[in-house]
Amino acid sequence: MENNMIKKSYAKVNIFLKIAGKRGNYHELVSRFVRVHNLYDKLSFIKTHRKAFTIIGNFSCNLETNTVYKAYNLIKDYDGVEEFFLNHEIHIEKNIPEFAGLGGGSSNAATFLLMANQYCNLNLSKDELCSIALKIGADVPFFVYQYDSANVTGIGEIVEKFDEEILNVETITPKVKCNTGEIFKIFRDNFYKEISNEDAKRLLSMKSLEILKELNIKKANDLYESALSLYPQLGSYEKKDWYFSGSGSSFFRINNGK
Ligand SMILES: C[C@@](CO)(OP(=O)(O)O)[C@H](O)COP(=O)(O)OP(=O)(O)OC[C@H]1O[C@@H](n2ccc(N)nc2=O)[C@H](O)[C@@H]1O
Ligand SMILES: Nc1ncnc2c1ncn2[C@@H]1O[C@H](COP(=O)(O)OP(=O)(O)O)[C@@H](O)[C@H]1O
After folding, report:
1. Known catalytic residue at 139
2. C-alpha dist (Å) from residue 43 to 18, 121, 146, 209, 248
3. Atom of ligand 1 nearest to the CA of 102
4. Residue 24: nearest ligand to its CA?
5. What role does this protein play (predicted)?
6. Could you tell me the end-to-end alpha-carbon distance of the chain, in angstroms, rounded to an integer?
7. Annotated catalytic, 241?
8. Assuming Cys at both sites, which of 11, 48, 71, 97 could form a disulfide with 109, CB separation 3.0 to 4.6 Å?
9. Which pLDDT score is estimated for 216?
10. Is there a binding annotation on residue 97?
11. Ligand 1 near 247 CB (within 6 A)
């Protein structure tokens, strides 16, 4: 029988990423997230007789730190979930580089939640899924909503659809494992600044292409200088019209109209 319990799990880039304040150990963001259509992992649920919870895929992390396992633990007490995953293995075909600022692990967790909601008939709303998602990581709520483009604020829990043309995003990922927590720490200690409400409002109202026309790589992403100070080798990838995603290490450009 053909398996149709399969779903694409897309990467994202941050068109711009500004810091708006602190919340405990976390930082409040003002950011435009855009889905990368040509870069995705594939998640599938495949019937098995193994009778044990199983994730199969080529990731570098162990089971306990896998975002999909974290997502499973948050929903396993819902009716039928444990039973379903004793009878179905989770397969993940990884194409999105890890530690790359492309949200691969976050995207996998969100895709898992969406699929479990559908195939285990949980009937959870997007908002309910979003509050589960936030417990896994700051980027996960964006992927739950499945928008092509969205304004993301708070520490990632406020996700508002942004209407604009579909962007053709090209990425390159240097072989540098950027540690998000370390980069935020350096930012807090050495580079801390907050965007004003007025500037935030303006950026959030502008189309991604207009924003990139106006800002250079450092102005577009408040974390870039912190990432550079921790991983100076990133500097050799700087090129005209290329920008930096999240806490790195990926650079991207938009090819619309080229
Ligand atoms: C910077 C961003 C922008 O999209 O992306 P990535 O580069 O990771 O893709 C994200 O906000 C990252 O989100 P995510 O990767 O889910 O981070 P988490 O696992 O929740 O947090 C890892 C660590 O980063 C710091 N952190 C994270 C998010 C945030 N808004 N403020 C923070 O200070 C915290 O120290 C936290 O312990
Ligand atoms: N399903 C997963 N896919 C990829 N990375 C994962 C996954 N689960 C946990 N991780 C861990 O998440 C971290 C990288 O997160 P990822 O979302 O791929 O990158 P980034 O946050 O830089 O965009 C690594 O510690 C990786 O081992």
Report:
1. yes
2. 31, 18, 15, 31, 24
3. 9
4. 1
5. Catalyzes the phosphorylation of the position 2 hydroxy group of 4-diphosphocytidyl-2C-methyl-D-erythritol.
6. 43
7. no
8. 71
9. 97
10. yes
11. yes
> Token pair for residue 233?
């080798």
Q: What is the pLDDT of residues 23-58, one digit of tens each?
A: 999 999 999 999 999 999 999 999 998 889 999 998
The residue whose CA is least distant from atom 34 of ligand 1 is 181
Rounded Cα distance, 20 and 135, in Å = 21
Please list the alpha-helical segments (H only) found in 22-136.
67-75, 81-87, 104-119, 126-136
Q: Is the CB of 63 under 6 A from ligand 2?
A: no
Percent of the chain clearing pLDDT 90 (strictly above): 93
pLDDT, tens digit (0-9, with 9 covering 90-100), for 177-190: 999 999 999 999 99
Q: Which amino acid type is present at position 140? A: V
Atom of ligand 2 nearest to the CA of 109: 1
Rg (C-alpha) for the chain, rounded Å, is: 18
Are 70 and 105 in contact by the 8 Å Cβ rule? The answer is no
Partner residues linked to 40 by β-bridges:
10
Check if 99 has its Cβ closer than 6 Å to any atom of ligand 2: yes
> Distance between CA atoms of 76 and 70, rounded to whole angstroms?
10
Residue of 143, 112, 110 lying closest to 13 (CA atoms): 143
What's the CATH code, domain 6-254? Answer: 3.30.230.10
Structure confidence by residue, pLDDT tens digits, 71-107: 999 999 999 999 999 999 999 999 999 999 999 999 9
98 is in an annotated binding site: yes
Count how many Cα atoms sit within 13 Å of the Cα of residue 71 in the half-sphere of its side chain: 27
Find out whether the beta carbon of 156 lies less than 6 Å from any atom of ligand 2.
Answer: no
Compute, in angstroms, the gap from residue 165 CA to the centroid of ligand 2.
29
